[in-house]
Amino acid sequence: DDDPYVRKTAAVCVAKLYDINAELVEDRGFLDTLKDLISDNNPMVVANAIAALAEIQENSSRPIFEITSQTLSKLLAALNECT
């Protein structure tokens, strides 16, 4: 969606949906979409995507999100936009 509000809200919704039905989230590719939001131009979207992934990771028995050098670079770019 073009609206950052919709994207940041969707990120939170994925985390809530994961609590209800983790298999559905994984099967429908919502985790991949959530990870893609880390590259978003809007820092609030990035922040919500990271928060959602962290929440999902806490409730998962397997690794969901790994911070690589590429991911870190994206996070630092988003942080720069916030200041």
Overview of the structural elements:
This is Condensin complex subunit 1 C-terminal domain-containing protein. It comes from Nymphaea colorata (pocket water lily). The protein is mainly alpha-helical. Helix content is 72%, strand content 0%. The model has no long low-confidence stretch (mean pLDDT 90). It has one domain (4-82). Helix 1 (4-20) packs parallel to helix 4.
> Structural class of the secondary structure composition?
mainly alpha
Mean of residue pLDDT? 90
Distance between the ends: 25 Å
Strand content: under 5%
Query: Roughly how many Å is the radius of gyration?
Result: 12 Å
**Element pattern in H and E:** HHHHH
The low-confidence parts are none
**For the report, how would you describe the main beta sheet?**
none
Number of helices: 5
Portion in helices: over 70%
How is the secondary structure organized here?
Elements (H helix, E strand, L loop, with lengths): L3 H17 L1 H6 L2 H7 L6 H16 L10 H14 L1
Helix pairs in contact: 1-4
Give a concise summary:
This is Condensin complex subunit 1 C-terminal domain-containing protein. With 83 residues, the chain is an all-alpha fold. It has helices spanning 4-20, 22-27, 30-36, 43-58, 69-82.
Features:
5 helices; single chain; mainly alpha; 0% strand; 83 residues
